[in-house]
Amino acid sequence: MEEDLTHLRRKRLTTETGLVCLEDYPYTVSVRLHGKHWCGGAIIGPLWVLTAAQCFDYVAKDEVTVRMGSVFRDFGGRIVSVVDIRRHPDYKMDQYYPEHNLAMVKVNVQIVSTSRMQPVALAIADADLPPLFGETVVTGYGSVVTGQIREGENQELRRMIVREVSRGECRLIYGNDYHLQHDNMCLLSVTKGVALCAGDTGDPAVHFSGVNRAGTLYGIALFSGTEECAYKSKPGVFAKVSYSRLWIDKVLEEIPEHTESADSTENVIPLDVEILSGLGRPSFGSFDSDMDELKHRAGEKLEALHVAAKTAADNGKTRVHDVVHQTAEAIQRLREAFHSLWHHELIAEGRARAVAWTKEAVRRVKEGAPPLSPMLLYEELVTLFHDRVWRRSIIIFACGVALGGSAGVLVGLRAARLTPTGPTARALHSHTDQAVILVEDAVSPGVGAGEVLVRVQAFSICSVDRGALRGRAHCLRSLVYRGHVTVGRGFAGIVLDVGYGVLDLEMGDEVWGCVSEWSGGAATELLTIRSSRLSKRPRGLSADSAAALPWAGARALAALRSLAYAPHNCKGKRVAVLGAASGEGCALVQLLSAWGAAVTALAPRHAALTLRDLGAQEFVDVEGTRTNPWASLEASARSTGPWDCVLACDGAGASPANGANPAALLKATAPRGALLDLRARPLLTDRLPMPFSLLFVTSFYTYRLLRWLTGCGTHTDWLEDRHMLRGGLDALAKLVDTGSLAPILDKVYLPQDFEVALAHACSDDAIGTTVVRFP
C-alpha cells in the first residue's frame, strides 16, 4: 500500500509546476522556529543538518526543531529536537553582509538513511559549480508569492532549476542593494517568474549529473528576496559550501555522544500515516508531532499575552485621569490639614500675640521709641519666653518643622534612588545643546485616550534629523513635545497596547508611520503616539523596508498635491527631479513614471542604473556640481527642452533662489509654483525675537484652549501635513500594494552607529533611505 501511495504522489506532483517528490530529494528538511517553518536545510550526516547562519541570529537552540522525511511542510515525517547549533567561527552577526554565512544544526537522534531521509554529498574544498553536464536544483518549502509564510498555504516541497550568473553580472543587477562576499555565488532560475521567496533562506542548491545521480551540495540560499520574490526575477545569493568544507569536515569528525537512532520508537516522533485524498492532502498526521507544534504555539501565545498584559497593567497606572484624580485628592487633604492647623487654639493664640507685638512695635515707632535697639529686643524676647503658653507654642512649632523637614528630605532621597517602574527600552537621547546623541534606557510612558504604544523595530533618518539636531523647530517642539528624542522620522513596528477610543488597531498589528521634527522622534524602542499618525503597513514588507517609506513617501505625495498632479493628468508631462537619489526623490521618480510622466533625474553617476530601473527616462550627471547643479539642468534644458515642473529634493545643492533661472528651465505654459523646493527650511518661529516669541507662545496656547473648549481636543494633528496622518499612510500602502511604489532601502545600521548612519544619509553616496534597526 505504501508503494502505491508513493507512486500516486510521484505521478501527481511531477505533473504540477515546481512540485516534486521527496524521494528525489531526500536530504531536504524544514528548520522550524516555535513550531513554524523558518528556514530550509540539508542533511549532511547522521546527526547534522547544514543551513544558513543568519537563521539563528538572536535564536536559542531550545526554540528550534527540524522536520524531515515529509513532502509537506507542516504534516508528516518526523520532528526532532536540536541539541547544538554551530555557526562558522568567522561569521559575524553584526555585519550586514556577513561572510561564511553557514551553520550546522545537531539533532538529538541519529538519522537512519531511508528513501525519504538521506544525507547529501558535499562539494570538495574550493570547488566551483560545474557549468556543464547536469543541472542544479534548489528545493525548499518557502512561499511562492510575495509576502510572509501563511499557515495552510504552499505546504508542498518545491524545486527550482537554476543556472549560475557571473559575479560581474550579479553585481550589475543588484547595484547597491547587496554586497557580494568572496564565498557567495548567484543562481538564477531558468524559468521566468520563479525565484527565492519568504522561507527559502537555507535552501540547498544541489548539482545532479548522469555520473552523480545522488547529487552534490554546492550552495545554501542566503538572500531570499522577501520584498520582491519573483517580481523582478533577480538571482538568489548563495553561500558556497566548498569554501567552508574544512570547517564542516572538522565538525563532522567529532566523536558523537551515544544517541538513539531515528527509527527508535523510544526517542523519536513516529512517521505520520499519509493517506491521500482526492486532492492529495493527508487526512491525519502524527499525534506526537502535532502535540509538539501545539505546545510551541501555545507557549508563544501565552508569552505574547503575558507581555501584553504586563505592559497594559504597568501603563494603566500612569494614565492621565488617574493622576489628575489622585492629585486632586492630595491637594484636598493638604487644604484640610492646613485649615485645621491654622485654626488650632495654640496657633491662633500665637498669631494673636504676634499681631499684638507688631502693633505695639508700630506704635513705638510712631512715638519715637527705638524698637530695634538690641537691649530692648532682648528684653522683649525674655518677656515672651517667660510666658509659659508662648514658650510651649514655640517649642511645638520648632519640633514640627524639624520632624516634617527631616521626613520630607528622607522620602525625597529614597524616591530618587528607586528604579522607575514600567517597561524599559532603548532610546537615542539628545542633550540640551543638541551636540551629543546617546543610546540610553528609557521608561515607556503610559498610553492615554486615542494613543497607541508601539515597539519600534526600525526607523529612518535623513537630512531633516541633522537640522533638528542643529535647532530647527526648537521653539515649536518645546510647546508640543516634552521628551528628549529628536531624531528618527519614519518608523515601522508592532502595537503593544492601545488606549481608550482606539478601535481600528489592536495589539500585535504591524504598523508604520512618521514623526515631524517638532513632534519629537521615532528613535526609541517604545513609542507612544496618537493612533491618527500611523496605519497598518503593507503585508510582505519587512520592518527595515517599511521604515524607509513613510517619511519619504508622504513628502513626495505632498509635493505632487501642491502641483495638482494625479494619475489622470500626468501623462506626457516632462518633470525634472533634482536630488533624485534621496528617499523622496526615488519615490517621486517611481510615482511620476508610473503615472505616465517623462522623468529627468539629476543625481551622482553611481545612482544612474538604480534611477533608470525606477522609471527615469533621462539622467543628468551632477557629479562635482553639488554647489550649483542648476547650470547642468539649464544645459540639459537647452538640448532636450524645458520641463513642465522642476522638483528640488534633499541633495540638490544650492536652493532655487540662489542659482535657478525659471525662464530657462520651465515651459511658458508652466503654472506658478512649478519650481518647487522640497527641502526643509528654517521655520519662522525659530527666528522670532523675544517679544514676538512670547506673543507666539501665548497665541499657541490660547488656540489650543479654544480648540479644547469647542470639543476639538488638545492634540496637535492640525500642525501636520495630511499625508503624514492616517489617510496619507493608507494611500501609500495602496500604492505599494498596486506596485506603483516600492521602498528604496540604502543601508541598515545599529543604534550605536547613529552618527555614521546620519553622515552617510546626508552624503552623496546614499541612494534611497538610510535606516537604523533595533536588534
TrEMBL record:
Alphabetical list of CDD domains matching this protein: Tryp_SPc
Pfam families in alphabetical order: ADH_N, Trypsin
Keywords: Disulfide bond, Fibrinolytic toxin, Hemostasis impairing toxin, Toxin
Presence of keyword Disulfide bond: yes
Domain spans labelled Peptidase S1: 24-253
Subcellular compartments: Secreted, Extracellular space
One of the protein's GO biological processes: proteolysis
GO cellular component, one term: extracellular region
Function of the protein: Fibrinolytic activity; shows preferential cleavage of Arg-Gly bonds in all three fibrinogen chains. Contact with the caterpillars causes severe bleeding, due the anticoagulant effect of the protein.
Protein's name according to its UniProt entry: Peptidase S1 domain-containing protein
Organism: Arctia plantaginis (Wood tiger moth)
